[in-house]
Amino acid sequence: MTNMHNFQDPRVLRAIELVWREAALLDAKDYPAWEELFTDDGVYVVPIDPDTTDYASSLNMIFDDKRMRHMRVERMIQGYAPSAVAAARTVRNVSSFVVKDISDTAVTLRSAQILSAFKRNEFQTIGAELTHTIALGETADADRIHEKVARLINSEYAVNAAGFLI
């Protein structure tokens, strides 16, 4: 089956819709709702090595399980952390979806993200290749992110503190 045919599969459409919903929640700074999009054993990773697949044994900018995601969300909403004070306004464009794997229980997608941020009168643009593994539930409302990997195109170079989630 070619990739174009995969986009007619309702499981793939549900996975893409979840990725877009995630982007909208992050742009709206609705971090508690974003946190709820993940499975209990889900991970959120921003690796430094652009080729690694062994995140647990690699150096990462972010490698969050449920507990660490919750702590990150608390810092973002408390207002005391530098990342939360005057947090950047963001707009994400997620596109160029490629279906990597489909089963009755999960869909893995790769996509491109351009994130535009504005903070303290400065614009910042961040490009990333995203890989999402979506655990499919009984209904689309029950679908959850099992793994999100955001590979920044400049991950091997200095990355400014963002003040937002990738």
What are the defining features of this structure?
single chain, 166 residues, alpha+beta, Nuclear Transport Factor 2, Chain: A, six-stranded mixed β-sheet, 6 strands, 24% helix, globular
Description of the molecule:
InterPro entries: NTF2-like_dom_sf (IPR032710), Rng_hydr_dOase-bsu (IPR000391). With 166 residues, the chain is α+β, with helices and mostly antiparallel strands. The chain has a single domain, classed as Nuclear Transport Factor 2, Chain: A, CATH 3.10.450. It has helices at residues 3-6, 10-27, 31-35, 66-78; strands at residues 38-47, 60-64, 89-102, 106-119, 122-135, 144-152. It starts with a helix and ends in a 14-residue tail after the last strand. The mean pLDDT is 89.
